[in-house]
Structures are given as structure tokens and as C-alpha cells.
Design brief:
Layout (H helix, E strand, L loop, with lengths): L5 E2 L7 H9 L10 E5 L6 E5 L11 H12 L12 H13 L10 E5 L5 E6 L31 H7 L10 E6 L3 H10 L3 E6 L6 H13 L2 E4 L26
Parallel strand pairs: 1-2, 6-7, 7-8
Antiparallel strand pairs: 2-3, 4-5, 4-6
Helix pairs in contact: 1-2, 5-6
Bound molecules: zinc ion.
The site of zinc ion has 6 residues, from helix 5.
GO biological process, one term: nucleotide biosynthetic process
Catalytic activity: 5-hydroxymethyl-dCMP + H2O + H(+) = 5-hydroxymethyl-dUMP + NH4(+); dCMP + H2O + H(+) = dUMP + NH4(+)
EC number: 3.5.4.12
């Protein structure tokens, strides 16, 4: 007899659930010698396990479907090309960037807490109440005051200031561009713990070198996000079509 279970790190995720529902065996009858399947969402590995099952298991619908499908030898037909969490958060940052009025650089940021909830979004723009028709957007001018730099708020600053939670301590920030040194200061002071960036195109500039120096000293992790797909298309018409959302492309 084989019993199957999804285990998510230390959680016996839906063990009792799938066994009761799909095989009809009560948890009390479990003992050693059964099998356990590791890795959430996919049956990758079968391992013998001592099945003293935690009674604090939690139900996760996705896992339940996958376990049932495996036990029944059928597919549930669940979509496979849905966005994974990191793609989703980075995409939110990129979507937010489309609000930017900066002609040369549109950057978005998305702050996510440990429960994978978005708690702040921002993009680069002029400060609240400052008419962005009255401020310059150029990158260079004879007078520094005629460039955007003294005025514009970066996406990271706006995401932190726009937070909808009491604070952003321990959160991760998804950003299109590696944060500059000014944003690194804000990230540190706000208590963020991780930076996930897509592009590092200014890597060798003094601002980025200073930024890494600060983040390193503060013990903030940073890592580059490598997307599996090059674009995500939002098709407003897809909702009117039957079945599959045509919102993703490889
Ligand atoms: Zn910045």
C-alpha cells in the first residue's frame, strides 16, 4: 500500500486530507513504511517515511488537487502556466512603472511581506502636489536645477512611503533596477530585508557601488531575478474568451 503526501518544508501539508478523501484510510491507521512525496505542487520524489502524522496539518487547495490527481491517475486540468510568485511581484513592479511620466526611465517597485502579501507599490515620479508639468524631466542641462534629479522620487521611496501596513520591517522589495545609494539608505532604514532586482545596468557607477556597500554592511540580501519568460501580456479581451487566459507568453 502506498500513501502519498505533500510536504512543504516542515509542514505535513495535506496529509490527513488526501488520505481521508482519496484513499479512505483514517489517519490513526498510518504507521511507518509508507511513502511521502516532497516538494509542493509536483510529485518529484518518493521517500519512505515514518508516518506519525502531525495533526496540525493545513489544507492547500493546489496540493490537494495535485495529490488527488496523482492518486486517481488523472489530471485535474489545472493551468500550468500561471505566474509564480516572484514573476508576479516583479510584474506588479513593471506594471506600476507604466504609470511613470519619466521619458527616459520608468521604474517600479513592489514590497512584499513574509506572507506574500503586497504592502507597497511605487514608481518614479515627482513629489505629491508638485505639478509634474512645471518640473523638468531631462537628464542633462547646463544647470543641474534644470534636470529631473533634484526633484524626482524613486520607485523604492514611493513604495516605502505608500505602504499600507504599519511598517515594512522584514519585507522584500522587488525592483526593476538595482536601487541607487539613496534608495539603499531608505531600504535599510525602513527595515527591509531583501532586494530582488531585474536589471543591474548601472553596476559600475559610484551610486551602485555605494549602494552595495551600504546593503552589505546592513546585512541586506540582494539577488537578481532571472525571469523564465521575457514578457507577460495583459489582454483585456481574454476575459471574454472561453477557457485559457491568454495573459502569458513564453
Ligand atoms: Zn533610487
Amino acid at each position: 500500500m502506498q500513501l502519498y503526501c505533500f510536504i512543504a518544508k516542515d509542514e505535513f501539508t495535506i496529509f490527513l486530507y488526501c488520505i481521508r478523501e482519496s484513499v479512505g484510510i483514517e489517519p490513526s491507521s498510518l504507521d511507518s513504511g509508507h511513502f511521502i512525496v516532497t516538494t509542493r505542487g509536483k510529485f518529484l520524489q518518493l521517500l519512505p517515511v515514518d508516518c506519525r502524522v502531525s495533526t496540525t496539518c493545513r489544507t492547500m487547495e493546489e496540493d490537494k488537487e495535485a495529490v488527488s490527481a496523482h492518486l486517481n491517475g488523472v489530471s485535474t486540468g489545472k493551468r500550468e502556466d500561471y505566474l509564480e510568485w516572484p514573476e508576479y511581484f516583479m510584474a506588479v513592479a513593471f506594471l506600476s512603472a507604466q504609470r511613470s511620466k519619466d521619458p527616459s526611465s520608468q521604474v517600479g517597485a513592489c514590497i512584499v511581506n513574509q506572507e506574500k502579501k503586497i504592502v507597497g507599490i511605487g514608481y518614479n515620479g515627482m513629489p505629491n502636489g508638485c505639478d509634474d508639468d512645471l518640473l523638468p524631466w531631462c537628464r542633462s542641462a547646463e544647470d543641474h536645477l534644470d534636470t529631473k534629479y533634484p526633484y524626482v522620487c524613486h520607485a523604492e521611496m514611493n513604495a516605502i512611503m505608500n505602504k499600507n501596513s504599519a511598517d515594512v520591517k522584514g519585507c522584500a522589495i522587488y525592483v526593476a533596477l538595482f536601487p541607487c545609494n539613496e534608495c539603499a539608505k531608505l531600504i535599510i532604514q525602513a527595515g527591509l530585508k531583501e532586494v530582488i532586482y531585474l536589471s543591474d545596468k548601472y553596476h559600475n557607477t559610484p551610486g551602485m557601488i555605494a549602494s552595495r556597500r551600504l546593503l552589505d554592511l546592513a546585512g541586506i540580501q540582494y539577488r537578481q531575478f532571472v525571469p523564465k519568460r521575457t514578457q507577460i501580456v495583459i489582454d483585456f479581451n481574454s476575459i471574454n474568451k472561453f477557457g485559457k487566459l491568454n495573459n502569458t507568453t513564453e
